[in-house]
């Protein structure tokens, strides 16, 4: 007995009554079998019903590809009910990956040219949904004609189809340019919204179109002014705002047209001020229009007063109860802080209040903006607020907050003592979350501030005595105690309260650090070195005897030798770590023990205080030294004359010729410098490879990526690429990651980068080494992916480098 086919409503009920997935699958398989049988029988009257059920099955996620050809048959049918289901099926079941979609091109063309308005609307919707590049090229003339159709229903759908065509085939832009100017006179808001979207796509893709539509800026201004001044309209008003969707679209188009164009910007200044002052922000619709107005003001060449008004609007957004609006305001202010710093500074108290938001994303944005607002005049107040936030913030934000405070203190510190106090507070509060270079920076700072040595060592000793869990703090304290331990015992620092410290206490504290399970191997190395240095810093009676050579050495006293008991205590601790599992720590302990046993007479000289360390950009300093040395060499080295070179050549020939008959080489090139080149070639050494020129592969918003190439001697198949990332913008680039890929015939090894933060204004760059092995000497291609955060926005760039110098792979 043949079970009759179900109706659509009955099929939906059967599927909903299924209690398990197996029952549902059984119902659908039976119905799909009936649908296939109906398609084979070729029933034209009920084909659309079967396809409707098949589309429902497709929506549920089951295969329905066998209905693709039925869609084509229904589209070709003269009945509207068939066309409606056929076009719906084409939009759901067909796409560019199937060649079958090209078969409906002729049917769509006929419907666009000769069909009724509903049929034309169906054809336009299908074309805008799944139209491929080939279909767009074939059907563009028909769509261009429908842009000026008498019916606004058809015009609206034709405009949206034209937007899809331009996105698929940008070279079709010239076809739609003439019609857009006429469509701007449209009164139907739906068609006008589509027209503004179409013009936006044209301007973004073609500079010629941008210049063409800059002439219609007054007309766009008039349309927007009409929307703003129009009263309440039941058809178009949303929350008291007249068609906010159209207003937002026009503002975006004005932003594109006014960017870097003085005349267009001047034409829209008054309108933007009117929108900014008359828009109600009590509802989301008004806030959306106002936010788009702010973005337009900031992107065009607007007046200074208008920009201040835009910043004040964002400041009002910060007081809004909606978290999304506050987040948008913080993000926008972060983008504006470099160009309008003084205007954003007025809202600093409100920004600081946002630090304590319970929402993590809001708190992070407020932190980034607060760090960007720090300058020389407010560094003390802002640092105090950020330090208070650091004590209570979540662990996810602690690393960014600590790094930001350290960078701000380094750039804007009013005094060295304040700088030291700030870093010590950060290390005490969140020492495990600071950047890797925090220890080196603080040791450099303390070493360069000679007048603060006593103050620093006392502060660090007190902090270390209270807490030894913060490893960077322990490392700096151990270094400082080792260097200036004699100042720690004097107790005559006027800057802090008197601190009486005994030698036994200091030694016990360092031993406690060495024995603590929380201490890292590097921390134990600092503590072990500090103990060694204290063997020459401390003296037995805590008093200093006059130095007999004070007139010559400039020192008024010198420490007496450490007592034998304490010296043996230090030697015992050092010898224990001679069998440590950590190789670095073991080597250091063995060397120190050898210093005690064999070279004790030299110990005081070897363990003298470190000289002052000069701070600066290492790479820049090295380049300056190299260029200076090259200049001196070129000036000091005279070019030898040809007779002298000939004598040298004859003399060198005697070393290789056993007989007295020396063969003279061919005449040398008389050009300057050529003689030296031939001299270097005489011992038959291979000529030095020519340097491979550097290559700049990326630049965006002040961020540059340069590649420099070297090939190690003796390894012709190995290429070393140094990737240098430099930031010349006004804001730091953080969370920077550079990833690379090469063809399969190469072997690539990525070394760890020097950091993940490129400081602003040409600060310390990020360097990373690529090791590429090319055994086949094939042409080299690189594919790079950059991810970073700049001005509070996450950026990802993927690009391919195909113009590498030939020397990199030959």
From TrEMBL:
Keyword Transmembrane helix recorded: no
UniProt keyword annotations, A-Z: Cytoplasmic vesicle, Golgi apparatus, Membrane, Protein transport, Transport
Subcellular location: Cytoplasmic vesicle membrane; Endomembrane system; Golgi apparatus
Membrane topology type: Peripheral membrane protein
Coiled coil: none
Keyword Ribosomal protein: no
Major location category of this protein: membrane
Cited PROSITE patterns: GAE
GO biological process: intracellular protein transport; vesicle-mediated transport
Sequence ranges assigned to domain GAE in this UniProt record: 690-805
A GO CC annotation given for this chain: AP-1 adaptor complex
SMART domains for this protein: Alpha_adaptinC2
Family according to the record: Belongs to the adaptor complexes large subunit family.
Name of this protein: AP-1 complex subunit gamma
Naturally occurring in which organism (per UniProt): Tupaia chinensis
């Amino acid at each position: 007995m043949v079970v009759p086919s179900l109706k659509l409503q009955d099929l939906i009920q059967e599927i909903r009554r299924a209690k398990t997935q197996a029952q549902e699958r059984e119902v659908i398989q039976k119905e799909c079998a009936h649908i296939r049988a109906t398609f084979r029988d070729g029933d034209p009257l009920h084909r659309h019903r079967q396809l409707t059920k098949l589309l429902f099955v497709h929506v549920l996620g089951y295969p329905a590809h066998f209905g693709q050809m039925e869609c084509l048959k229904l589209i070709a049918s003269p009945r509207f009910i068939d066309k409606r289901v056929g076009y719906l099926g084409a939009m759901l079941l067909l796409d560019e990956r199937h060649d079958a979609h090209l078969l409906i091109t002729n049917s769509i063309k006929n419907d666009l040219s000769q069909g009724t308005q509903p049929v034309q609307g169906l054809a336009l919707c299908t074309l805008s949904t799944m139209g491929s590049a080939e279909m767009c090229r074939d059907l563009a003339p028909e769509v261009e004609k429908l842009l000026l159709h008498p019916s606004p229903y058809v015009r609206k759908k034709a405009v949206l189809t034209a937007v899809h065509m331009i996105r698929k085939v940008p070279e079709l832009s010239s076809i739609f340019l003439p019609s857009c100017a006429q469509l701007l006179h449209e009164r139907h808001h739906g068609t006008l919204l589509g027209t503004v979207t179409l013009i936006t796509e044209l301007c973004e893709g073609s500079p010629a179109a941008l210049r063409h539509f800059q002439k219609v800026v007054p007309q766009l201004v008039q349309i927007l002014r009409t929307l703003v001044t129009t009263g309440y309209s039941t058809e178009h008003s949303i929350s008291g705002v007249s068609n906010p969707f159209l207003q937002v679209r026009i503002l975006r188009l004005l932003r594109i047209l006014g960017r870097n164009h003085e005349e267009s910007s001047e034409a829209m200044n008054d309108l933007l001020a009117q929108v900014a002052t008359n828009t109600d922000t009590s509802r989301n619709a008004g806030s959306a229009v106002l936010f788009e107005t702010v973005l337009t003001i900031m992107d065009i060449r607007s007046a200074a007063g208008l920009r201040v008004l835009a910043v004040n609007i964002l400041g009002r957004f910060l007081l809004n109860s909606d978290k999304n609006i506050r987040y948008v305001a913080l993000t926008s202010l972060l983008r504006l802080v470099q160009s309008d710093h003084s205007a954003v500074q007025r809202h600093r108290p409100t920004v600081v209040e946002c630090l304590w938001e319970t929402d993590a994303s809001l708190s992070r944005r407020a932190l980034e903006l607060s760090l960007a607002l720090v300058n020389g005049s407010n560094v003390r107040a802002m640092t105090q607020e950020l330090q208070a936030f650091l004590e209570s913030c979540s662990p996810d934000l602690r690393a960014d907050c600590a790094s930001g405070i350290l960078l701000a203190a380094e750039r804007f510190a009013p005094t060295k003592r304040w700088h030291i106090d700030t870093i010590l507070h950060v290390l005490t509060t969140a020492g495990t979350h600071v950047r890797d270079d925090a220890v080196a920076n603080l040791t450099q700072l303390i070493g360069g501030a000679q007048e603060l040595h006593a103050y620093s060592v006392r502060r660090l000793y007190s902090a270390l005595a209270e807490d030894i869990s913060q490893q960077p703090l322990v490392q700096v304290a151990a270094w400082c105690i080792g260097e200036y331990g004699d100042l720690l015992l004097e107790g005559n620092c006027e800057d802090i309260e008197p601190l009486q410290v005994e030698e036994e206490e200091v030694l016990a504290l360092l031993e406690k650090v060495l024995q603590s399970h929380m201490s890292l191997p590097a921390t134990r190395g600092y503590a072990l070195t500090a103990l060694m240095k204290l063997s020459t810093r401390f003296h037995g009676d805590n008093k200093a005897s006059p130095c007999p050579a004070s007139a010559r050495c400039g020192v008024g006293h010198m420490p007496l030798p450490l007592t034998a008991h304490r010296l043996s205590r230090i030697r015992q601790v050092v010898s224990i770590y001679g069998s440590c599992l950590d190789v670095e720590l073991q080597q250091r302990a063995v060397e120190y023990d050898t210093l005690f046993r064999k070279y004790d007479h030299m110990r005081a000289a070897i363990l003298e205080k470190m000289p002052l360390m000069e701070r600066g950009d290492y790479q820049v300093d090295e380049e300056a030294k190299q260029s200076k040395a090259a200049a001196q060499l070129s000036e000091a080295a005279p070019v030898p004359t040809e007779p002298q070179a000939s004598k040298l050549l004859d003399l060198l020939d005697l070393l290789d010729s056993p007989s007295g008959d020396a063969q003279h080489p061919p005449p040398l090139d008389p050009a300057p410098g050529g003689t030296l080149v031939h001299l270097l070639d005489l011992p038959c050494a291979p000529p030095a490879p020519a340097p491979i020129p550097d290559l700049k592969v990326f630049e965006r918003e002040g961020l540059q990526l340069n590649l420099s190439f070297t090939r190690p001697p003796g390894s012709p198949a190995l290429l070393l690429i140094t990737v240098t990332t430099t930031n010349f913008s006004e804001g730091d680039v953080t969370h920077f990651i550079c990833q690379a890929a090469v063809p399969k015939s190469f072997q690539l090894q990525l070394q760890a980068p020097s950091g993940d933060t490129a400081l602003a204004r040409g600060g310390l760059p990020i360097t990373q080494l690529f090791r590429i092995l090319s055994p086949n000497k094939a042409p080299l291609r690189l594919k790079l992916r950059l991810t970073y955060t700049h001005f509070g926005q996450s950026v990802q760039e993927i690009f391919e480098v195909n113009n590498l110098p030939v020397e990199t792979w030959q």
